[in-house]
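User: I'll paste a sequence; please echo it back and then give the predicted structure.

Assistant: Echoing your sequence first, then the prediction.
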Amino acid sequence: MAEILVEFTDVVLQRDGRTYRARVAGAESGDGMWRAWIEFVSPDGTVLASGRETTQPNRQDTLYWATGLTEVYLEGALDRALDPGTGGARTDSGPPMPEPVATSHLAHPESVLNPFAAYRKGEQMFRRQLQALSSWHLVNIIKDYDLSEQDPADLSASEPEVLIELIVLQVRERVARETLL
């Protein structure tokens, strides 16, 4: 029988800024090995599940694995859970896992930073992180997170300060809208 091994307190953000609470679920399979996956619970209670994320020799090792997951890993697992081609996919005969909810396919990001996660840690820190990036990184963030309808070639001609302001303003606006919901 599956059980929740770890529940994370920080939210995980989807590319469009929607939030999820992450938790690691696991179960012992017929061969005695433990398999674990990550479930994401939206504010409305919808549960998305990744496919199997790990196989460990026992519950203790599975729990240890789960406690070491980083924010970046959870963001990748959320992308996998949202991708109908990979979320919930099984190739073994382990215990059944929840089927993922069908959602739209997300492109693989080229950006080096999730602006919504970074903004939630504080705007000053977010600005410092953006200032450390090259212009092409900033353009990739804008493109990957749909922060502007402007052509990427036109964005590339902009000064980094202009790109940073665009990113901060768009992220701040989306986070504020989400807070009102």
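Residues 3-82 form one domain. The beta strands are 3-13, 19-28, 34-41, 47-49, 54-56.
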